[in-house]
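Query structure, 201 tokens:
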């Protein structure tokens, strides 16, 4: 179970971060984008049947393409959400990889079945769901490093594992009130971090 995001759409990568991407030397901006989208694109590639090394190659190709095209994309008035643009790049590169590389000893060769599978796994809906999960993982990792272990465990047990508060309090040697406070602190911090990804340029 993951933190529930408000609104119908998953959060979008924040504008201030995306606007820094044309600067290839901005390692902090690129590191943050890759930390969100890299695992996401990798998992989507693996669902196509690509081996780990091939999936890694696909991720590299996607970010190489993003780096080359992001400045031009930012200048478009009809650009839409950043994640949708990354999805289109990932889909196009996946098609290229699958039509030039054998899977299980036989090349896809552009067959309708192979291309249909790409559409199934790289659909906007599935990409958005994976994106939402990846944003949560990104935020959770940062929050976990910023709080004491008992605070994180109170959140994990009661929110992620759905353990009753009284049982979690007994396991952790805390009062139920302390568990509620700890869970609330973690959830508030998670929402703050996730909120950074709600505005597109």
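Result returned for the query:
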């Amino acid at each position: 179970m993951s933190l529930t995001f408000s609104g119908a759409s998953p959060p979008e990568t924040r504008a201030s971060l995306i606007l820094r991407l044309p600067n290839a030397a901005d390692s902090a901006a690129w590191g943050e984008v890759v930390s969100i989208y890299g695992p996401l694109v990798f998992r989507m590639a693996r669902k196509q049947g690509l081996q780990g090394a091939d999936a890694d190659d696909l991720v590299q190709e996607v970010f190489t393409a993003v780096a080359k095209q992001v400045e031009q994309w930012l200048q478009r008035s009809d650009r839409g959400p950043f994640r949708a643009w990354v999805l289109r790049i990932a889909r196009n590169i996946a098609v290229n990889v699958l039509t030039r590389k054998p899977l299980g000893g036989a090349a896809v060769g552009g067959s309708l079945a192979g291309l249909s599978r790409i559409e199934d796994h790289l659909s906007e809906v599935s990409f958005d769901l994976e994106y939402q999960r990846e944003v949560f993982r990104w935020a959770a990792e940062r929050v976990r490093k910023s709080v004491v272990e008992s605070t994180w465990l109170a959140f994990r047990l009661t929110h992620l594992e759905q353990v009753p508060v009284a049982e979690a309090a007994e396991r952790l040697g805390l009062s139920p009130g302390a568990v509620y406070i700890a869970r609330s602190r973690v959830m508030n911090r998670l929402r703050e971090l996730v909120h950074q990804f709600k505005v597109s340029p």
